[in-house]
């Protein structure tokens, strides 16, 4: 059992991890930016360290500073939460080099599934349906225009290094492409310290369905069913409902089977989510 866990995150997720640790008798360490110094997660933790100013790239994405705190506080383990550095394999590897345990998927799984384009490549190899799009980052505006014409408008620009709607934009015509690409790259860089973006076909009025999976280190994977996550604002989920009123028994089995197959293909370990888009005809596509 760990004696002290550092939570490399903020807000609700950090609070939830801290509460669970307290119930288990484990000491907690919070990190915070200067404006967050009186936030709930800071006040609840046993120890708290400032890692930089308000800008995320200089605080919650400040790998060097966070690694310094891990060693300074003698944390046994690090919980990354979600977002920020949770899908950064270099950070996960660096944490383990300090001697602390990384509470999350292996660096191999993060490399494959945390990178949206790498995940698309893997899933295509498994034969599972994938939303039409690119598997390589956009390199120029001309490259983007050519790819968009092949896919067909409307298209979606997405960040390769993370989710949560950061760096995501809908484009309905070629006239908007240049400005939107610049904005998306800038936002992705600030949110994930990674400005790679890619294109994906925008499916209009789909259902956003997530399958919750758990995997152990013996190769066993189980599905806990679906969550309906279609009610969103600015690509952020507002309501998650289970079971989905749209999914029938047959489709639930197909989605779960596909999610388990994908999870096994990347040697995933721990709790995870496989996300799909389902159209009005109940055809489904891997999302991320």
From TrEMBL:
Protein name: ATP-grasp domain-containing protein
Provenance organism: marine metagenome
UniProt keyword annotation of Nuclease present: no
Positions of the ATP-grasp domain: 120-288
Record keywords: ATP-binding, Biotin, Ligase, Nucleotide-binding
Gene Ontology molecular function terms on file: ATP binding; ligase activity; metal ion binding
Record PROSITE patterns: ATP_GRASP, BC, CPSASE_1
Pfam family, one: Biotin_carb_N
InterPro entries per the UniProt record, alphabetical: ATP-grasp, BC-like_N, Biotin_carboxylase_complex, Biotin_carboxylation_dom, CPAse_ATP-bd, PreATP-grasp_dom_sf
Positions of the Biotin carboxylation domain: 1-288
